[in-house]
Amino acid sequence: MSSSASPNSDEIWRLADAKAPEFFALSDRIWEMPELNYQEQRSAAQHAAMLEAQGFRVENGIAGLPTAMLGEAGAGGPVIAILGEYDALPGLSQEAGVAEHRPLIEGGNGHGCGHNMLGSASLLAATAVKDWLAATGTPGRVRYYGCPAEEGGSSKGFMVREGAFDDVDIAICWHPSAFTAVSLPVSLACVEVEFTFHGRASHAAAAPHLGRSALDAVELMNIGVNYMREHMPASARVHYAYIDAGGIAPNVVQAKATVRHLIRALTLGEMWDLVRRVKAIAEGAALMTETTVVARQLSGDANLVGNRPLEEAMYANLLRLGGPGFDAADRALAAAFQKTFSAEDIRASYARSGLPVREGESLSDEICPLDAKTDLSIGSTDVGTVSWVVPTVQCRAACYAIGTPGHSWQLVAQGKAPAAHKGLALAAKAMAGVAVDVLSQPELLKAAKDDFAAFRAKNPFQNPIGDDIAPPLDMAAH
């Protein structure tokens, strides 16, 4: 089905523009209080307060997650979910607007993935839809889902497990980017698992034969996983981090050590097979060292499922809106940041959007083609799990300099710039436009649901978040 933006779009965009400054300020406030997975108490409070101020019915702590929330407005009709995030990343503290590495707090947190913008734009979109429903009397409900811990915490997977999306008809989301486009429905399914080895302490010099080193087991496990890399699908990824290396005393045989592995693959089936193999390697490492191992899954995301009717509707809205409208000052600041990037950073940024490199371009105002061929350098997102239970669409909006590395101090530094606000506003209007299209075009809603049903009929779903997995509310405490 081909779709064009609804005539109602002009009104919804006017409503979004009228309140945009309030949400620029919200984004900047969230930028100033960067909080990690499941620790976003202040950020969540800011979002809940904004929902209440805008007249939403608010429920905090949904799905057993203290920093998750739901704000709803409207009555009857289809239910439109707009997804927001507000978690930050560790070690990326940075002064705003400065094109050199200048941490505000050494080792502090920073919004290196732009989630300060992400949640604020989604809440602006939901507010515009709420106002449009009230003004027109159209049956329908809009919900803003405040989703914590996207950076490895998989809150949306826990929300899916607890039924938070069971009555939702359509889900909409976005992400800050260097280019504006409909997001390709491609991501890696993943699980994050901690392996804790238990051995026996002893004097490392006087009685090493009496000890059984948990740290040796961790190192042997990592070697085994590294050898596995040659024998897994090319699109798969496995990463690891030492969580507890057993202490700082080399003259003590380490009795306990923990390593965290993030296992990714293009499909859920491939991922579960890799998880099985990694667990077998851990058991082998324990056998070799006469230690024991306990595996604890922290989180998990499904791969993204596309929805062509919604993607076409999103694309139509983006084409009508045009780019963010960057000015000379925006471009000059972006050019200053580009001087801190490598040529490879810039080439990779174009390649991810399927575009040729353009020399001297610091910001992009174009809308990328709907089916642009990209290099598919992809990560994971817990939006993927939502897309298996609800027809889902996402866009990207240009908010920062071309070549900006994800999860970098440079991205943090651009998070409060005027260009970030312009991209935020564009994303909000595009998401609100799709919501209005669905609410005013029953044939679009039917096409989206039919597309989703056809996929699910051939693809059984197993949520990577099992019933026995507790939300890892302490995962950022290490």
List SSEs in N-to-C order: HHEEEHEHEEEHEEHEHHHHEHHH
Sheet with most strands: 7 strands, mixed
Q: What ranges have pLDDT less than 50 throughout 5 or more consecutive residues?
A: none
The beta-strand count equals 11
Mean pLDDT equals 95
**Span of the ends, CA to CA:** 49 Å
Radius of gyration: 23 Å
Query: What is the strand arrangement across the widest sheet?
Result: 1-2-4-3-5-11-6
- Helix content, binned percent: 25-40%
User: Please, how many helices?
Assistant: 13
Structural class: alpha/beta
> What general form does the structure show?
globular
In what range is the share of β-strand residues?
15-25%
Which SSEs are present, and which pair or pack?
Blueprint: H1 9-31, H2 41-53, E1 57-60, E2 69-75, E3 79-85, H3 115-136, E4 140-147, H4 155-161, E5 170-177, E6 181-182, E7 189-198, H5 214-228, E8 237-244, E9 256-265, H6 268-289, E10 292-301, H7 308-321, H8 328-338, H9 343-352, H10 383-387, E11 392-398, H11 409-413, H12 418-440, H13 442-458
Parallel strand pairs: 3-4, 3-5, 5-11
Antiparallel strand pairs: 1-2, 2-4, 6-11, 7-9, 7-10, 8-9
Helix pairs in contact: 1-3, 1-12, 3-12, 5-6, 7-12, 7-13, 12-13
